[in-house]
Design a protein that fits this description.
Helix content of chain A: 10-25%
Strand order of the largest sheet of chain B: 1-2
Number of helices of chain A: 3
Order of helices and strands of chain A: HHEEEHEEEEEE
Number of strands of chain B: 2
Shape of chain B: globular
Structural class of chain A: alpha+beta
Shape of chain A: elongated
Order of helices and strands of chain B: HHEHHHHHHHHEHHHHHHHHH
Number of strands of chain A: 9
CATH architecture of the domain at 34-286 and 396-421 in chain B: Up-down Bundle
Oligomer: heterodimer
Radius of gyration of chain A: 27 Å
Largest sheet of chain B: 2 strands, antiparallel
Number of helices of chain B: 19
Largest interface: A-B, 29 and 37 residues
CATH topology of the domain at 34-286 and 396-421 in chain B: Cytochrome Bc1 Complex, Chain C
Strand content of chain B: under 5%
Chain lengths: 181, 427
């Protein structure tokens, strides 16, 4: 049957093959975009991440609170003088994720440490906010899931977690008032 | 092994259908006249048991989905609604949740059967790899199913397991956000897990069909590991021999299953999962379901986040390479004096890893986890070397010979002739 097409010449079938293939590749790419994109956080979820005002006034020294922003847990800790001194006394170069305490708090508000409250290992909530909680070996937090220890600056000191507890974006708009986001 | 079809359509309708869609012929050839080695023991009934468990999980799961609400604020209560209000809802849910555990009991027996009798070796490599794929799909399905009740263990299990992907360099965080559909495990996560939990069993079903197809191309392995040489002497027809054996094994298995459902329905679960999910508090002792514990122990054994995740996935992936890692030509461990000892040691290592996975992440368990993780991978490495140095015991000439040697202390060709005709006489 195919005698006529078995030539070295370019045929209409070759053209159709290439044109269809090219259109198919573009079409496939165009279909993949919405299929993958729908997995990302939707408009409602993003909108829920609007900036949030928090009054730190009621938090007594030595106390810590939990709050949620964008569905993520945030710790706000009113640190004692001892905890601040401990965090600043350490040699930064020896830390797994080197960062000074000064870089993790706002100047003039050193007593307030504000960090995301999920362990950087696999996302559990470290213990250390309530008075009876274990605070780990460094007066900060201890993650019960896989045994990570954080210090009083929220920096990883021991255990499988690779990074310090991250700092959410925030700014002081009054002496004890912050806006997160 | 799939020889010439022996199906003969009996009625006019069967002849008419056979000429158009030979489905009855397919069923007859693969489940009636299909020859199976005559020396299969009860470990070979677990394939049938697994098919039964898959169907049971799909049936109970489809029904549960009619009463369940996949929403972060309602999921927990809808499960309690199933337990308290829906007629026989307690039974259906306990069948489904214990069914998942029993499914894994059966699959682990099935896998270790394959490991002991060398069922992964040529010509069954593709059959084996399809099995590893089914195992992976089962783990994904079980994990997502466990998230659906939206209790504390559901929520934190989902958090820990999805965070595994954040260990990947550069793209990790993005992948996790896309898995969650948000900035933490929340309602979008629950919704997509529900959708996938409903989908994956049907994908398992598809791969099971490929698995059985591959099985019927190469034929079943058997306890001697010697291939079928003479279909007349070495095999019996699937029906009635394998059919009745499979069903008997299945019924015994269902007794155990029923014991858990009716007398210990929460034995394999965690009390923490009867507390509604709370994103502000992690349970002090968070562990996965028992069937993930050995892999969880390997994850925690490595003091590096990415390393731990890679080791855990490698522990499963290494199974797929086993056909080429095991260098011995002898399939069955019956005839491998050194490898047999290693096999039993490996089984113990897996059980100890399971125990360590359930313990808190502190000493001395961390050190033991490291030792036993090394031993786990050591098994696969040692098989490479053992195959070269080991002197195997003498293999029987055929399946029939081995059966005769076992039954009557093995005297005489007259017995061989007598038993060779047995299938026909009984059938």
């Amino acid at each position: 049957m195919a005698h006529a097409t078995e030539t070295t010449q370019t045929t209409r079938r070759d053209f159709l093959m290439l044109a269809t293939g090219a259109a198919g590749a573009v079409g496939l790419g165009a279909v993949v975009v919405p299929l993958v994109s729908q997995l990302a956080p939707d408009a409602q979820t993003i909108a829920a991440g609007a900036p949030m005002d928090v009054d730190l006034g009621p938090i007594a020294e030595g106390q810590a609170i939990k709050l949620f922003w964008r569905g993520k847990l945030i710790f706000v800790r009113h640190r004692t003088k001892k905890e601040i001194d401990e965090a600043r006394a350490v040699n930064v170069a020896t830390l797994p994720d080197p960062q000074t305490d000064q870089a993790r708090v706002k100047e003039g508000h050193e007593q307030f440490l504000i960090v995301y409250g999920n362990c950087t290992h696999l996302g559990c909530v470290p213990l250390g906010n309530s008075p009876g909680d274990p605070k780990g070996d460094y007066d900060g937090w201890f993650c019960p899931c896989h045994g990570s220890h954080y210090d009083s600056s929220g920096r990883i000191r021991k255990g499988p977690a690779p990074l310090n507890l991250p700092i959410p974006p925030y700014a002081f708009n009054a002496d004890t008032k912050i806006r997160i986001g | 092994m799939s020889g010439h079809s022996t199906y003969v359509p009996k009625t006019g309708f069967e002849r008419w259908l056979d000429a158009r869609l030979p489905i009855v012929r397919l069923m007859h050839d693969s489940a009636v006249s299909y020859p199976v080695p005559r020396n299969l023991n009860y470990l070979w009934t677990f394939g049938g048991i697994l098919v039964f468990m898959l169907v049971a999980q799909i049936v109970t799961g489809v029904i549960l989905a009619m009463h369940y609400t996949p929403h972060a604020t309602m999921a927990f209560n809808s499960v309690e609604h199933i337990m308290r209000d829906v007629n026989f809802g307690w039974l259906l849910r306990y069948l489904h949740s214990n069914g998942a555990s029993m499914f894994f009991v059966a699959v682990y027996v099935h896998i270790f059967r394959g490991l002991y009798y060398g069922s992964y070796k040529a010509p069954r490599e593709v059959l084996w790899i399809l099995g590893v794929v089914i195992f992976l799909l089962m783990m994904a399905t079980a994990f997502m199913g466990y998230v659906l009740p939206w209790g504390q263990m559901s929520f934190w299990g989902a958090t820990v397991i999805t965070n595994l992907f954040s260990a990947l360099p550069v793209v990790g965080e993005t992948i996790v956000t896309f898995l969650w559909g948000g900035y933490s495990v929340d309602n979008p996560t629950l919704n997509r897990f529900f959708s996938l939990h409903y989908l994956l069993p049907f994908m398992i079903f598809g791969v099971v069909i490929l698995h059985i197809w591959a099985l019927h191309v190469v034929g079943q392995n058997n306890p001697t590991g010697v291939e079928v040489k003479n279909v007349q002497k070495d095999t019996v027809p699937f029906t009635p021999y394998a059919t009745i054996k499979d069903i008997f094994g299945m019924v015994c298995f269902i007794f155990v299953f029923a014991y858990f459902v009716f007398y210990q329905p929460n034995f394999m679960g965690h009390a923490d999962n009867y507390i509604p999910a709370n994103p502000a508090v992690t349970p002090t002792h968070i562990v996965p379901e028992w069937y993930f514990l050995p892999f969880y122990a390997i994850l925690r054994a490595i003091p590096d986040k990415l390393g731990g995740v890679l080791a855990m996935f490698a522990a499963i992936a290494v199974l797929a390479f086993l056909p080429w890692l095991d260098t011995s030509k002898v399939k069955s461990m019956r005839y491998r004096p050194v490898a047999r000892v290693l096999f039993w040691a490996f089984l113990v290592v897996c059980i100890v890893l399971g125990y360590l996975g359930a313990m808190p992440a502190e000493e001395p368990f961390v050190t033991y986890s490291r030792i036993f993780t090394a031993l786990y991978f050591g098994y696969f490495i040692s098989l490479v070397l053992v195959g070269i140095f080991e002197k195997p015991a003498k293999l029987p000439n055929s399946i029939a010979d081995s059966v005769l040697a076992n039954t009557k202390g093995g005297s005489g060709a007259s017995l061989a002739a007598a038993t060779a005709s047995e299938p026909n006489a009984k059938g």
